[in-house]
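Slack export, channel: ligand-projects

TW: morning all. Re-posting the request from yesterday since it got buried. We need the structure predicted with the small molecule present, not the apo form. The ligand is calcium ion; the SMILES is in the block with the sequence. No rush, but it would help planning for next week.
GE: picking it up
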Amino acid sequence: MCRKLVYLASFVFVLVLVSNVSAGLVAHWEFDEGSGVATVDSSGNGHDGTLQGDPQWVAGMVGSGALSFDGSDGLVDVGHDESLSMMDELTITVWVKVSDLGTYYFLVCKQPSGTAGDNYPGNYEFRTEANTGALQFGHQEAEGEQYTFYTSETSITAGQWHHVAVSITKGELVEFYIDGISAGSSEQLTNFGVLNDEPVRIGGRKDGYSFFNGILDDVRLYDRALSAVQIQKLYNGNPPMFTIAEKPTPADGALHSNTWVSISWGAGDYAVSHDVYLGDNYDDVNSGAEGTFRGNQADTFFVAGFPGFAFPDGLVPGTTYYWRIDEVNDTELDSPWKGDVWSFSIPPKTAYAPKPANGAESVDVDVQLSWTGGFGAKLHTVYFGDNFDDVSNATGGLPQGALTYTPGTLKMAKTYYWRVDEFDVVETHKGDVWSFTTEGAVAALNPANGAVDVTQTPVLTWAPGSGASHEIYFGADAASLELKGSGNLGSESYDPGQLEWDTTYYWRVDEANNASADSPWTGPLWSFTTANFLTVDDFESYNDLNEGEPGSNRIYLAWIDGFDNPAVNGSVVGNANPPFAEQTIVHSGLQSMPMAYDNAVGKSEATLTLTSTRDWTVNSVNTLTIWFRGEAGNAAETLYVALNDSAVVTNDNPDAALGTSWTVWNIDLMRFADQGVNLANVNSITLGLGNRSNPVAGGAGMIYFDDIRLYPPAP
Ligand SMILES: [Ca+2]
Ligand SMILES: [Ca+2]
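GE: finished. pasting the full token output, ligand included:
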């Protein structure tokens, strides 16, 4: 008894649904009346039309009849109803046979008087284009917005029946179809929506411009965007069926910032109930694997992530969930109708969606970094640098509330790393290390543009631009630079050889790329001026690259200290952590050499073996100058310099190491020559504190050296 009642109830419900077959069909004019001035809307929605002018009843393409128009005055006025003002989706389909292609023919419009460009918000017109026979859809979204026409790629021909259609989803493509196949599509430039109370007219416009000339039949309006398959079925005489669930909420692929969710959907037209599948594995949900089926229900929503519901412990941040709704109607043979697999994702607790994107290139040097905060994050700690390991291992940064970070103007053509740790009040979630590379071009060059006191034997380097190759121009006359050579991407250096002293040179790098019509690109003019002295060491060339990496040049590997020999040498060159060269206390340029000394073992010194600048007789140089400064609290120890590990000269001031401002020490080279040094071929230079020949236990401190130079006699 009970079962029978349930069956009866279902049966009544199904009858109601089936009477409303194809819920998307808003109006349908079959033009089979054969006489009179009225044509019925067979969708059952009551949008009956009235013939104006003198359309003629003729034999139809579909069914018994159709309407013929003579191009002078006829149209069908359907009137206005709110249900004809589609706001999200629209499909218009028409069987059409035009007599000629001499002008525009308006198949279906909902448009006030006026022409394109006038201000008639919300109107549309579906027409054929003059001369070409292409399909066109014209639309103006709102007052003041552009009236935009979208045009099909293929066309109809005069004198033949064609099935034509336009299908639109707000914000997506405008898609055209001719005879059941795609006729091309266009990106939507305006925001779709039909918002006026004008009548829908078939075969003509309100202003009487260009009445239709030919035959129209079987005109349909849908408030849904028909798919290509559905249009093809319609062309073949099978009205589309909307059997599967649609319009998922959250939208397919959406981020959902909560640990619970209420998913909902639009039911298929024939659905009596719904099978719900939900899980965190696409394949499992797609196949309906065990554990993903959540039950059959009448409601079109489903809650998960609460105790007593699916996923009672809550949805997990950083997880993507998949779901599927199968529409069920046991009276239909092909039920259930399997739905698409949709997904939504719960954001991770870590920071994500970095801007610039991880791995981005050609990033502006003044970039502002931003990201999306992790799920529940309240504070963010940013680590930034040009070394992956340093950024990856960094700790103890200052948290901030903002989701942006401005690192200041960066170097060009350089890779930077950054990491954002998210704090959600309970714990800190360490972020991934992201990277980006700044735009390549002109600034990352050496010598810097306008630099002075440049060595007379520089190697010019620059950052690659957008070209595949480059041409180098160089000379002392800015007005007539000589082409010195060319190179491919990856060889961004040029050695001009021995240059004059105290002379300004100019250079330029033109980028070339045969694939580009506007190649080559002339580079900017750069200049530098050579020094009027020789540089022994200005400490600018040292970097922090790992030993063994190309270009690695750590200061403590060039200046050998007592680190490995502490029993006889109390010095340690370089800072304990990068940057190893001193970058705050400098005499000139960007770097100097820090040296800690501890004369408990009697002396502290560091030695540089000379590879270049070994001839200390060039241009009659006769003075070695060394800049140095100490720190407050230093122990007084005698400063000395030695050449070739043998000839020693000491500073006259026994308190030299106590000074806390930069001081220059000038030494006559003859003092070394007198001790047997061949000034034309110097092997090494040693800087130290203490008594080199008779070490005596002493104190400790820190001293800095910079700008070791050789000067000619003053003119
Ligand atoms: Ca017909
Ligand atoms: Ca320096």
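GE: first-pass observations. The longest helix spans residues 2-19. The chain has five domains: 25-230, 246-345, 358-426, 451-530, 537-711.
TW: perfect, thank you
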